[in-house]
Amino acid sequence: MAEADVRVAVPSDAAEIARIQLTTWRTAYTELLPPAVLEGLDSAETEQQWHQTLTSGPAAVLVATEGPWIVGFCAAGPAPEAEMAAADGAVPPDAPEVALVSALLVEPRWGRRGHGGRLLGAMARRLVADGATRGITWVPEADTASMAFFRSAGWAPDGTVRTLDAGGRPLRELRLSGPLELQFEN
User: Fold this and answer.
1) Quick one: DSSP state of residue 95?
2) Is 109 helix (H, G, I), strand (E, B) or coil?
3) d(Cα 60, Cα 90) in Å, to the nearest integer?
4) Half-sphere exposure of residue 121, counting CA atoms within 13 Å on the CB side?
5) Distances (CA, A) of 144 to 48, 63, 116, 140
6) Which segments in the chain show pLDDT lower than 50?
7) In the chain, where are the structural domains located?
8) Architecture field, domain 4-179
9) Which residues of 56-184 form beta strands (DSSP E)?
10) How, if at all, do strands 169-179 and 156-166 pair?
């Protein structure tokens, strides 16, 4: 295997991050999202959104590399109240210490090589340095690979569920929560 690493994303990475996002969604989410939604994803618009994030935030973005290639990315930052609130709207007492992992994707052809774990581990260290103690993320309930990955890091569903409209088809997501002091299980 070529040398693998994680580094901070820079604005010139926006096109590759967008390509990875769209490729991964179109490969891994064919059963979760309607074809019209996947076909309607616009690469230029997605690239612009990532460029905006990389230049103005609010999330920090890391990329995983293998040799000269960017193979995955992770975006995270302080969790907005709406993302961490309970179903009744109550904000948890540790709210200032909660981080949201808003995206963690590894292009499928580079999967099962440790890139996801390196990305989440590096991001967790960064978030802890910024004062976070707990992370949350939203995962489609039917995305068993992502569920298993986060469970291996010690994260679990916290009982909060949301349903998104995915092009006229409901997409049920579970909120996972866990410590940022990660200890991956094999």
Assistant:
1) G
2) helix
3) 26
4) 13
5) 30, 23, 15, 8
6) none
7) 4-179
8) 3-Layer(aba) Sandwich (3.40)
9) 60-66, 69-78, 98-106, 134-140, 156-166, 169-179
10) antiparallel
